[in-house]
Amino acid sequence: MTAPREASGARRVVYTHGHHDSVLRSHAWRTAENSAAYLLPHLEAGSRVLDVGSGPGTITLDLARRARPGEVIGVDASAEVVAQANGLAESEGVPNVAFQTGDAYALEFPDDSFDVVHAHQVLQHLGRPVDALREWRRVLRPGGLLAVRDVDYGGVIVEPPLPALTRWLELYHSVAAWNGGEPDAGRKLTRWVREAGFRDLEASGSVWVFATELDREWWGGAWAQRVTESSFAAHAIESGHAGPAELASIAEAWRSWAADPDGWLLMPHGEVLARA
């Protein structure tokens, strides 16, 4: 996740999830197939690609495999996460990818440097998404392709509708907004991209569904940890939106949901392709 450089007096903008192990495990589940399928038909061999907010690098490596012999660069604010991603690239033998620390609002690349700029689950965490998109347009060559995808928490569906998980969804909106983000970013991507000066927009949507026993165990277990141990928990308490006892009850609800054979969760995402 790329961090903004805040001006004096700017509103608080903090990455809601942080880099707890439970968060990174969740991010490492992501692949180009389950998180960037809308981009893949448009990704040409030999392309130079920038992946903004690349995290542990699993999507980035998939993009690099498809862009060979092109070059793919991932940028993230966390030096620790960047080191992990570079280690993954080395261990998996993907030579045409590199990771470095970077700022979503001030990329250290010349104008017209890339054929594709990709960002997955990034804009929802930025206080000035249109400014970030303008910076990404700067580093795209004329006619280059932007690909952005973000979740829309306003459309999340959980079954069974446990009261504590309904409360989790309300709490997530409150904490994300307190941190300066936009938890319903998926529905706003088209407007943001247009305001940033891109053209030839193509909007789409896709979902993640967690319903199998393994999916529920993984997702529910991860959130049971995140809601009590990650930066999300600290932000919920610091902001006064929840206390430790309530967070513990939400964690227990996630474990109950994961153990329910009828448990089902859907997360919708907005997606936009556009040209610089």
Protein architecture, described:
The protein has 276 residues and is α/β, with parallel strands linked by helices. The protein is 40% helix and 22% strand. The chain has helices spanning 21-28, 32-35, 58-67, 79-91, 129-139, 163-178, 189-195, 213-229, 231-238, 244-259, and strands spanning 49-52, 72-76, 97-101, 114-120, 140-151, 157-159, 199-210, 264-275. Strands 1, 2, 3, 4, 5, 6, 7 and 8 form an 8-stranded mixed sheet that branches. Helix 8 (213-229) packs across helix 9 (231-238) and helix 8 (213-229) runs antiparallel to helix 10. 45% of the residues are buried. Residues 1-13 and 22-27 have low confidence and may be disordered.
Concise structural overview:
It is built from 10 helices and 8 strands.
**From N to C, what is the helix and strand string?**
HHEHEHEEHEEHHEHHHE
Largest sheet: number of strands, sense, barrel closure? 8 strands, mixed
Q: What is the end-to-end distance?
A: 23 Å
Report the strand count.
8
Shape: globular
Write the layout of secondary structure elements.
Layout: H1 21-28, H2 32-35, E1 49-52, H3 58-67, E2 72-76, H4 79-91, E3 97-101, E4 114-120, H5 129-139, E5 140-151, E6 157-159, H6 163-178, H7 189-195, E7 199-210, H8 213-229, H9 231-238, H10 244-259, E8 264-275
Parallel strand pairs: 1-2, 1-4, 2-3, 4-5
Antiparallel strand pairs: 5-8, 6-8, 7-8
Helix pairs in contact: 1-8, 6-10, 8-9, 8-10
